[in-house]
Amino acid sequence: DTEVTQTPKHLVMGMTNKKSLKCEQHMGHRAMYWYKQKAKKPPELMFVYSYEKLSINESVPSRFSPECPNSSLLNLHLHALQPEDSALYLCASSTAETSYNEQFFGPGTRLTVL
Amino acid sequence: DQQVKQNSPSLSVQEGRISILNCDYTNSMFDYFLWYKKYPAEGPTFLISISSIKDKNEDGRFTVFLNKSAKHLSLHIVPSQPGDSAVYFCAASQAGTALIFGKGTTLSVSS
After folding, report:
1. Which of A56, A105, B6, B49 is in Cβ range 3.0-4.6 Å of B34 for a Cys bridge?
2. A102 touches chain B (CB under 8 A)
3. What angle do CA B67, B72, B75 make, to 5 degrees?
4. Which residues of chain B have a CB within 8 Å of the CB of A8?
5. Residues of chain A falling short of pLDDT 70
6. A82 three-state secondary structure
Protein backbone atom coordinates (compact mmCIF):
# COMPACT_ATOMS: atom_id res chain seq x y z
CA ASP A 1 0.00 0.00 0.00
CA THR A 2 1.76 3.12 -1.24
CA GLU A 3 -1.12 5.47 -0.85
CA VAL A 4 -2.01 8.44 1.29
CA THR A 5 -5.75 8.82 1.60
CA GLN A 6 -7.63 11.94 2.60
CA THR A 7 -11.25 12.46 3.54
CA PRO A 8 -13.42 14.16 2.67
CA LYS A 9 -12.57 15.06 -0.92
CA HIS A 10 -14.63 18.23 -0.74
CA LEU A 11 -15.87 20.21 2.25
CA VAL A 12 -18.03 23.29 2.43
CA MET A 13 -18.38 24.92 5.82
CA GLY A 14 -19.60 28.10 7.41
CA MET A 15 -17.43 30.36 9.52
CA THR A 16 -19.02 29.10 12.74
CA ASN A 17 -18.71 25.40 11.94
CA LYS A 18 -16.32 22.88 13.40
CA LYS A 19 -15.04 20.22 11.02
CA SER A 20 -12.09 17.86 10.68
CA LEU A 21 -9.94 16.71 7.80
CA LYS A 22 -8.51 13.21 7.97
CA CYS A 23 -5.39 11.67 6.48
CA GLU A 24 -4.24 8.08 6.62
CA GLN A 25 -1.20 6.14 5.43
CA HIS A 26 -0.15 2.54 5.95
CA MET A 27 3.38 2.72 4.59
CA GLY A 28 5.00 2.79 8.01
CA HIS A 29 6.03 6.40 7.50
CA ARG A 30 6.91 8.23 10.71
CA ALA A 31 6.63 11.79 9.41
CA MET A 32 3.36 13.35 8.29
CA TYR A 33 2.67 16.81 6.94
CA TRP A 34 -0.18 19.23 6.30
CA TYR A 35 0.12 21.66 3.40
CA LYS A 36 -2.21 24.38 2.17
CA GLN A 37 -2.36 25.18 -1.53
CA LYS A 38 -4.21 28.14 -3.01
CA ALA A 39 -4.98 28.32 -6.73
CA LYS A 40 -1.91 28.89 -8.93
CA LYS A 41 0.36 28.86 -5.87
CA PRO A 42 2.81 26.27 -4.58
CA PRO A 43 1.95 24.07 -1.59
CA GLU A 44 2.78 25.83 1.69
CA LEU A 45 3.80 23.81 4.69
CA MET A 46 1.55 24.15 7.76
CA PHE A 47 2.55 21.40 10.20
CA VAL A 48 4.98 18.50 10.51
CA TYR A 49 4.55 15.55 12.82
CA SER A 50 7.52 13.32 13.50
CA TYR A 51 6.96 10.11 15.45
CA GLU A 52 3.49 11.39 16.40
CA LYS A 53 4.87 14.58 17.89
CA LEU A 54 4.39 18.04 16.43
CA SER A 55 7.81 19.20 15.31
CA ILE A 56 7.04 22.12 13.01
CA ASN A 57 4.22 24.68 13.15
CA GLU A 58 4.72 27.28 10.46
CA SER A 59 2.98 30.06 12.40
CA VAL A 60 -0.44 28.73 11.49
CA PRO A 61 -3.46 30.46 13.12
CA SER A 62 -4.97 28.60 16.06
CA ARG A 63 -8.21 28.06 14.18
CA PHE A 64 -6.28 25.16 12.58
CA SER A 65 -5.51 22.44 15.11
CA PRO A 66 -3.56 19.35 14.07
CA GLU A 67 -3.71 16.01 15.81
CA CYS A 68 -1.79 12.78 15.29
CA PRO A 69 -3.62 10.02 17.18
CA ASN A 70 -1.23 7.32 15.95
CA SER A 71 1.50 6.74 13.41
CA SER A 72 -0.97 6.13 10.57
CA LEU A 73 -3.45 8.94 11.13
CA LEU A 74 -3.27 12.69 10.93
CA ASN A 75 -6.19 15.01 11.53
CA LEU A 76 -6.67 18.73 11.00
CA HIS A 77 -9.41 20.23 13.14
CA LEU A 78 -11.01 23.37 11.80
CA HIS A 79 -12.94 25.96 13.79
CA ALA A 80 -14.06 29.51 13.06
CA LEU A 81 -12.38 29.61 9.67
CA GLN A 82 -12.41 32.60 7.37
CA PRO A 83 -13.30 32.66 3.65
CA GLU A 84 -9.62 33.23 2.83
CA ASP A 85 -8.90 29.81 4.32
CA SER A 86 -10.59 28.24 1.31
CA ALA A 87 -7.92 26.15 -0.40
CA LEU A 88 -6.75 22.64 -1.20
CA TYR A 89 -5.39 20.98 1.94
CA LEU A 90 -2.80 18.34 1.21
CA CYS A 91 -1.50 15.68 3.53
CA ALA A 92 1.85 14.01 2.91
CA SER A 93 4.02 11.42 4.58
CA SER A 94 7.64 10.32 4.39
CA THR A 95 9.79 7.67 6.00
CA ALA A 96 11.34 10.24 8.31
CA GLU A 97 11.29 13.93 8.93
CA THR A 98 13.74 14.76 6.23
CA SER A 99 13.20 15.74 2.67
CA TYR A 100 15.86 13.22 1.63
CA ASN A 101 13.01 10.78 1.77
CA GLU A 102 10.51 11.91 -0.78
CA GLN A 103 7.10 12.81 0.49
CA PHE A 104 4.03 10.96 -0.71
CA PHE A 105 1.03 13.23 -1.09
CA GLY A 106 -2.64 12.48 -0.74
CA PRO A 107 -5.19 13.79 -3.25
CA GLY A 108 -6.17 16.66 -0.97
CA THR A 109 -9.37 18.04 0.49
CA ARG A 110 -10.89 20.97 -1.36
CA LEU A 111 -12.19 23.26 1.38
CA THR A 112 -14.62 26.11 0.79
CA VAL A 113 -15.45 28.46 3.66
CA LEU A 114 -18.60 30.49 3.20
CA ASP B 1 10.82 36.66 -1.37
CA GLN B 2 10.61 33.49 -3.44
CA GLN B 3 13.53 31.16 -2.84
CA VAL B 4 12.50 28.74 -5.58
CA LYS B 5 11.36 30.21 -8.87
CA GLN B 6 9.79 28.62 -11.90
CA ASN B 7 9.60 31.55 -14.27
CA SER B 8 7.66 29.83 -17.04
CA PRO B 9 4.05 29.30 -16.00
CA SER B 10 3.41 27.08 -19.00
CA LEU B 11 5.14 25.04 -21.70
CA SER B 12 3.71 23.40 -24.81
CA VAL B 13 5.55 20.57 -26.54
CA GLN B 14 4.73 18.10 -29.29
CA GLU B 15 4.63 14.39 -28.54
CA GLY B 16 8.00 12.76 -29.05
CA ARG B 17 9.97 15.96 -28.55
CA ILE B 18 11.98 17.00 -25.51
CA SER B 19 10.35 18.96 -22.66
CA ILE B 20 12.67 21.14 -20.61
CA LEU B 21 11.34 22.60 -17.40
CA ASN B 22 13.49 25.11 -15.57
CA CYS B 23 13.87 26.10 -11.96
CA ASP B 24 16.06 28.74 -10.29
CA TYR B 25 16.82 29.13 -6.62
CA THR B 26 18.35 31.84 -4.50
CA ASN B 27 19.47 29.99 -1.36
CA SER B 28 22.95 28.58 -1.91
CA MET B 29 22.48 26.42 1.20
CA PHE B 30 19.87 24.24 -0.48
CA ASP B 31 21.35 20.76 -0.75
CA TYR B 32 18.52 18.64 -2.10
CA PHE B 33 16.16 19.23 -4.99
CA LEU B 34 13.05 17.39 -6.09
CA TRP B 35 10.54 17.50 -8.91
CA TYR B 36 6.88 16.71 -8.35
CA LYS B 37 4.15 16.22 -10.93
CA LYS B 38 0.55 17.13 -10.22
CA TYR B 39 -2.57 16.20 -12.13
CA PRO B 40 -5.82 18.11 -11.52
CA ALA B 41 -7.73 16.89 -8.44
CA GLU B 42 -4.73 14.85 -7.26
CA GLY B 43 -1.91 15.52 -4.84
CA PRO B 44 1.67 16.06 -6.11
CA THR B 45 3.54 12.88 -7.06
CA PHE B 46 7.27 12.56 -6.52
CA LEU B 47 9.13 12.30 -9.83
CA ILE B 48 12.88 12.57 -9.40
CA SER B 49 15.40 14.15 -7.06
CA ILE B 50 19.04 15.22 -7.00
CA SER B 51 21.52 15.90 -4.27
CA SER B 52 23.75 18.96 -4.46
CA ILE B 53 26.82 16.72 -4.71
CA LYS B 54 25.65 15.56 -8.14
CA ASP B 55 25.03 17.41 -11.36
CA LYS B 56 22.82 14.87 -13.08
CA ASN B 57 20.34 12.19 -12.18
CA GLU B 58 18.49 10.05 -14.67
CA ASP B 59 15.42 7.84 -14.30
CA GLY B 60 13.98 6.49 -17.52
CA ARG B 61 12.66 9.34 -19.63
CA PHE B 62 13.34 11.87 -16.88
CA THR B 63 16.69 13.56 -16.25
CA VAL B 64 17.40 16.33 -13.79
CA PHE B 65 20.42 18.57 -14.25
CA LEU B 66 21.83 20.76 -11.51
CA ASN B 67 24.09 23.75 -12.11
CA LYS B 68 25.11 24.94 -8.65
CA SER B 69 27.14 27.91 -9.83
CA ALA B 70 24.11 29.24 -11.69
CA LYS B 71 21.69 28.09 -8.97
CA HIS B 72 19.65 26.46 -11.68
CA LEU B 73 18.14 23.07 -12.26
CA SER B 74 16.19 21.65 -15.12
CA LEU B 75 14.03 18.63 -15.76
CA HIS B 76 14.27 17.00 -19.18
CA ILE B 77 11.57 14.65 -20.40
CA VAL B 78 12.48 12.66 -23.51
CA PRO B 79 10.42 11.66 -25.39
CA SER B 80 7.44 13.65 -24.16
CA GLN B 81 4.11 11.86 -24.07
CA PRO B 82 0.55 13.23 -23.80
CA GLY B 83 0.28 11.59 -20.37
CA ASP B 84 3.07 13.87 -19.17
CA SER B 85 0.70 16.83 -19.37
CA ALA B 86 0.49 18.10 -15.79
CA VAL B 87 1.78 20.80 -13.48
CA TYR B 88 5.42 20.29 -12.50
CA PHE B 89 6.70 21.67 -9.21
CA CYS B 90 10.34 22.14 -8.37
CA ALA B 91 11.15 21.89 -4.65
CA ALA B 92 14.29 22.43 -2.60
CA SER B 93 15.42 21.94 0.95
CA GLN B 94 18.35 22.70 3.21
CA ALA B 95 19.78 20.09 5.56
CA GLY B 96 16.59 18.08 5.70
CA THR B 97 14.31 20.96 6.57
CA ALA B 98 10.91 21.57 5.03
CA LEU B 99 10.53 21.61 1.27
CA ILE B 100 10.18 24.97 -0.45
CA PHE B 101 8.13 24.67 -3.62
CA GLY B 102 8.17 26.77 -6.77
CA LYS B 103 4.90 28.01 -8.28
CA GLY B 104 4.82 25.26 -10.88
CA THR B 105 4.93 25.01 -14.67
CA THR B 106 2.00 23.60 -16.61
CA LEU B 107 3.25 21.25 -19.31
CA SER B 108 0.97 20.45 -22.26
CA VAL B 109 2.07 17.69 -24.61
CA SER B 110 0.07 17.51 -27.82
CA SER B 111 -0.20 14.41 -30.01
Report:
1. B49
2. yes
3. 90
4. none
5. 1-2, 97-101
6. coil
